[in-house]
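How a chain folds remains the central question behind the approach discussed here. The record that follows shows the chain in one-letter code together with its fold in token form:
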Amino acid sequence: MQYRFRCVLLLAVVTIWCFGAVESPLAQENCRISVDTILAARNDSVVDPQLKRHIGELQSMFNYTSYRLLSSESLNLRLGQSGMVSLPGDRRLKITPRRIHGSRADIALQMMKQKRTVFETQVQLLNRGSLFVGGPAYQNGNLIFKISSAY
């Protein structure tokens, strides 16, 4: 019986060694990334109805009186796959989910204007989580990006 167990164990080790480690099911999943582009300004007090549920969080992080949703885009990406979101002011945001571990995803963000990188970072997002990122000046205010993930 012990001989049989050792043979099965040896066969499993050889199989993993020859064919590589078995990927987790999460590594096969798509990561849905959503980007909401918000124009924040101080010249009035209009709050877009679609942003009302986030107004407390926005006002606690950013000192503006007006918040308008300019656009919303979603991407379905595999790990390691990059996608682009168009932003106002001739900018693009390149998004690449790098790794999923536990309930968090490592996501690389790279903002470009024309062909030049103007901002680059990596964030961790909880599954079904989101974060707000302050952006560049635009029109009479600043852009804010709400980045959300689900996997």
